[in-house]
Amino acid sequence: MSLSGDLVIFIDAENASAKWGVPLYVWLCQNFKVRECYCVGNRATVAKDYLLLEGPKFHLVNSMLGKDSADTWLVMLGSRELCLRRSVKKVAILSNDRDFAPLAYLAAERQKKLIIYAAGNSGTLRAQGGHAGKRQ
Predict the structure, then answer these.
(1) Among candidate residues 45, 39, 44, 48, the one with its CA nearest the CA of residue 16
(2) In angstroms, rounded to a whole number, what is the distance separating the alpha carbons of residues 30 and 50?
(3) Burial class, 65, CB count within 10 angstroms (exposed 0-12 / middle 13-18 / buried 19+)
(4) Global pTM?
(5) Rounded distance between C-alpha atoms, residue 105 and residue 51, angstroms
(6) Backbone dihedral region for residue 123 (phi beyond 0: left; psi -120 to 50: alpha; all else: beta)
(7) For the chain, how many helices (H) and strands (E)?
(8) pLDDT tens track for 3-26
(9) Closest alpha carbon to 87 in 30, 29, 129, 33
(10) CA 63 – CA 132 distance, rounded (Å)
(11) Cβ proximity of 15 and 97 under 8 Å
(12) Coil, strand or helix: which one is 60?
């Protein structure tokens, strides 16, 4: 995958373990031009390692309480980035569930490169990448 164009990262902190999410975020920053990272979760319960990353590009978004509130925020923020920022060419989603599917569909509609990372039941990290909307 080409390194040109901005990458926006979305982390579902309610189910993407900091054990693999934090090193993966660092790797993405070292290998891509990261524009922003939105880490969504309840600030009171999110892993301390995510809290330590807060800075100019890493935004911890407090999803408050309630079932699926982090997922709603994740899709809303992603929609905003994909619709308003033309420089965004790639989207990375770090999550362990499929609640971000609307964001993946929007990325496909907008012709963005999509990278999805998830840990399987064994804790093994899996990645699915390629042009959004096309299986590789």
Answers:
(1) 39
(2) 17
(3) exposed
(4) 0.81
(5) 29
(6) left
(7) 4, 6
(8) 456 899 999 888 888 999 999 999
(9) 33
(10) 26
(11) yes
(12) strand
